[in-house]
């Protein structure tokens, strides 16, 4: 339906803008053909000849293409030649008018937009691979699209800024990612993007306007109730409305930022594990940052600053706040609040000399970088955590050499990517955050043994006939498969593959860090962390019944009808000799 309406819109625009030029050409040629048929020709045998309509049409047809076959079917009279000259010049002006109108049409924004929508709808409709609808292509959307591309996941992108859609055309993505300049909250554009397509897996709302994100989520839920929706929101009012909707996940970038700041300060081993799992640059597993103990200074007390204060104080971390709009009289007893920008004097007033570190979390990169310079001069030993707002300022933040740089658009993109690729991994991290450090350190040791120094590869599989036919058939026949047996290497039995099963989801309930004797059931969803080469090996076990039986029982069964028949004959012969008390020949 969307393609048809877009095609109709293109046709209407063409007819509207080319109507006058086409009528002008039609009028010039009609008058020329009729006039040529009426012009007297040469006198033959005392009678004046006339050109019939077919010959006149033929003459004007090849004359319009400047072919010039000559005067056909007979030589022209002076009247006919004069009429021909008149029609030729008139036709030139008519063609110039038509070509100019055509060029103007091709440059008209409405025509370009209609053609873009038509081509976009055709690409989406012809897509058979699973894809994500990404609404908003700013910093977060761009980083998320890069992550999806790295995981071979397709996306369809909508953005209201035409320059961002133009930039999409020069990105070197490994998969097709068509984009459209349009209002993503309009139902017709969501339909054009494939919200009702069978291959659509989720809608991600990442615009900078919370009202627009809410509208996108509501429209998507009405257009396709089964579709999963992930929505960015920084407003408490919008979050309450979104959480009331079914199958909608709310992502607050400020909450994520505050959570990461707390992990870096109070749970560095968990922060290190999380950063390693999401592939953060330069992070080595088992080597967390060393953060000193003590009070902290928070520069910036906006929405993100309130989240950071709430998170740190809930876990007993002392905080001193610097912000030009804070009211010191509203401070609790014993709390330090400085109403100023985080310059030298404000930092000295807040007690920069004896703090463990500072979190520069304003919404202006220049102010955050300036604060880092002042802290470096006043207290070089202070741990510096800085918020990066724009991805374009990456070079400056790299040069600042802060102890920890957190870009909220990047952290949001990584959180959403985890929800799309391996939703169990975020549940595992939050589960570990509620346990003691020993559980995290134990998992880190296991991952170091399994993966080593190679980058981690997270992937999930469900024990269903489409994804694991051999396992489901074996379990359905009454067999038993434990997790440790499934992870054995069929090439060097009974050694295990370099991978770790991090979690299992059964009947909607997650089971974290299962042991190797954990019995599997049909319908389980397994989350693995391994090196890249392990997934195809384990996939072979999941799909090949002979490989599965071998890693489970250690017996390499014969394959094919002939070998199975010979094996059965040999087994019966041995059974017969054993029953008679004879020993079979070797």
Automatic annotation (TrEMBL):
SUPFAM superfamilies: NAD(P)-binding Rossmann-fold domains (SSF51735), Voltage-gated potassium channels (SSF81324). PROSITE patterns: RCK_N (PS51201). It is found in: Cell membrane. It comes from the Bacteria. GO terms for biological process: potassium ion transport. GO terms for cellular component: plasma membrane. Keywords: Ion transport, Membrane, Transmembrane, Transmembrane helix, Transport. InterPro entries: K_chnl_dom, NAD(P)-bd_dom_sf, RCK_N, Trk_Ktr_HKT_K-transport. It is a multi-pass membrane protein. The chain crosses the membrane at residues 21-41, 53-70, 82-106. Residues 129-251 form the RCK N-terminal domain. It holds the Pfam family TrkA_N. This is Potassium transporter peripheral membrane component.
């Amino acid at each position: 339906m969307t393609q048809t309406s877009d095609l109709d819109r293109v046709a209407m625009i063409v007819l509207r803008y080319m109507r006058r030029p086409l009528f002008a050409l039609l009028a010039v040629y009609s008058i020329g053909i009729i006039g040529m048929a009426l012009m007297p020709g040469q006198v033959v045998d005392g009678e004046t000849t006339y050109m019939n309509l077919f010959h006149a049409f033929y003459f004007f047809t090849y004359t319009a293409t400047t072919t010039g076959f000559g005067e056909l079917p007979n030589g022209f009279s002076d009247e006919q030649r004069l009429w021909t000259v008149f029609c030729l010049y008139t036709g030139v002006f008519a063609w110039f008018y038509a070509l100019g109108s055509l060029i103007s049409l091709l440059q008209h924004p409405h025509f370009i937009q209609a053609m873009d929508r038509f081509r976009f709808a055709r690409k989406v409709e012809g897509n058979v691979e699973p894809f994500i609808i990404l609404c908003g292509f700013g910093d977060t959307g761009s980083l998320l699209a890069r992550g999806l591309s790295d995981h071979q996941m397709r996306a369809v992108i909508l953005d209201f800024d035409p320059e961002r859609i133009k930039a999409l055309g020069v990105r070197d993505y490994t998969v097709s990612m068509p984009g459209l300049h349009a209002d993503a909250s309009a139902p017709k554009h969501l339909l054009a993007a494939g919200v009702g397509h069978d291959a659509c897996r989720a809608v991600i709302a990442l615009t900078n306007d919370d009202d627009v994100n809410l509208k996108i989520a509501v429209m998507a839920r009405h257009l396709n109730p089964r579709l999963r929706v992930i929505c960015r929101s920084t407003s408490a009012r919008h979050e309450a409305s979104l959480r009331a909707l079914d199958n909608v996940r709310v992502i607050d970038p400020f909450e994520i930022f505050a959570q990461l700041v707390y992990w870096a300060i109070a749970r560095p081993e968990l922060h290190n594990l999380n950063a390693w799992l999401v592939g953060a640059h330069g992070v080595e597993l088992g080597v967390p940052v060393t953060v000193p103990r003590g009070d902290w200074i928070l520069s910036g007390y906006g929405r993100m600053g309130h989240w950071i204060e709430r998170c740190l104080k809930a876990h007993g971390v002392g905080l001193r706040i610097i912000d030009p709009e804070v009211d010191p009289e509203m401070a609790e007893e014993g709390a330090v609040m400085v109403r100023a920008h985080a310059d030298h004097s404000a930092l000295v007033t807040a007690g920069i000399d004896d703090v463990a570190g500072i979190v520069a979390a304003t919404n202006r990169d220049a102010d955050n970088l300036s604060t880092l310079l002042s802290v470096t001069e006043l207290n070089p030993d202070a741990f510096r955590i800085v918020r990066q707002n724009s991805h374009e300022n990456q070079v400056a933040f790299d040069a600042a050499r802060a102890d920890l740089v957190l870009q909220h658009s990047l952290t949001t993109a990584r959180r959403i990517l985890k929800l799309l690729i391996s939703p169990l991994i975020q549940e595992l991290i939050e589960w570990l955050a509620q346990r003691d450090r020993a559980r995290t350190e134990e998992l880190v040791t296991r991952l170091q043994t399994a993966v080593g120094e190679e980058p981690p590869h997270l992937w999930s599989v469900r024990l269903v006939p489409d994804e694991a036919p051999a396992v489901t058939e074996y379990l359905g026949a009454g067999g038993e498969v434990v997790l440790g047996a499934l992870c054995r290497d069929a090439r060097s039995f009974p050694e295990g593959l370099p991978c770790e099963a991090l979690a299992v989801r059964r009947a909607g309930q997650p089971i974290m860090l299962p042991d190797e004797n954990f019995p599997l059931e049909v319908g389980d969803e397994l989350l693995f962390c391994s090196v890249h080469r392990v997934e195809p090996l384990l996939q072979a076990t999941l799909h090949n019944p002979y490989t599965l039986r071998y890693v489970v029982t250690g017996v390499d069964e014969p394959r094919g009808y002939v070998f199975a028949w010979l094996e059965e004959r040999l087994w019966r012969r041995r059974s017969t000799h054993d029953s008679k008390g004879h020993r079979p020949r070797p």
